[in-house]
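Risk register update: the risk of archive-format incompatibility is retired. Evidence:
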Amino acid sequence: MARQVPAGYDGPTMMRLLSILLLPTALSAQPLQERLDRVKVEQYAEAPGYSEGPTWRNGELFFCSGALWRVDKDKKATRHLELSPAGTYLKGDGSILICDNKTPALLELTVDGKVNVLAEMFDGKKLGSLNDVTVDARGNVYWTDPHQASRENPVGKIFRLTPDGVVSMIASDLAFPNGLEVSPDNKHLYVIESQTAKVLKYDLPADDKPLGPATVFHALGGSGGDGCAFDAEGNLWVADFSRPDRKQGRIAILSPEAEVLGYLNVPAKMVSNITFGGPNRDEVFMTTGTPNGVFHANVGIKGFAGHPGKAMKVLRELQQ
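Archived output:
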């Protein structure tokens, strides 16, 4: 049945009303690249060296640069823990997982400041290098080990730790596995293989199974990627490390269908990693090299909070 125009509303008036009603839809449908081109990217904190592994927690930012650094709400950066960390992850309880290469071990920084060792051995040997870390919806923790891996020598590995303390190597023969994230729907694990400049996609396996074969989700090209993070819509924001043509890094935003939605240019030679933060989780913090530190941009796009994780079996407390 045809809708009738209410009394007193002529055709032009109705058109104006419709245009107002449709305005938010028109704005939300605006190409992402146009929005990103207007975003201001500024340095948020300086660091003594190349930086990576950012995590935002309650107004404070943690990142890795020869130690674990903390940037307080007044943007004052201080050395927080004398470790040799490469990656961090914020759990739902406020604790922070840390890939540490000083111990070496997977660590947990609790809200009250304790540093717990969660994993330090596999198959009777001490862990090698730990690079980046993430968590799935079942509470399993995943990290990459790219030690001595390259395109010519693909010996990189991916490990998994279950909440009850079981460590498994679930993938090997990778050409420098780097950043990794579990999709918001908990169906896939995405891994950046830096030396091939590819983003790999795996089906998330059962807790007692290794990863199956990977598919190439996206070919970055250039110098390859490093870290990554999901937004709330399931788009993957990838640190596109350094573009040889621009001598500058950027963030590439990929849809769940691997379509390139846009790029956020960062005024640094290298962009290593990214996390969402801010009171509304619609700001991004990006670790960099040259200049070394953290850059910030208010993108107005909400990030995925990450899977909250579970209480983990603690091996021992690390004394600082």
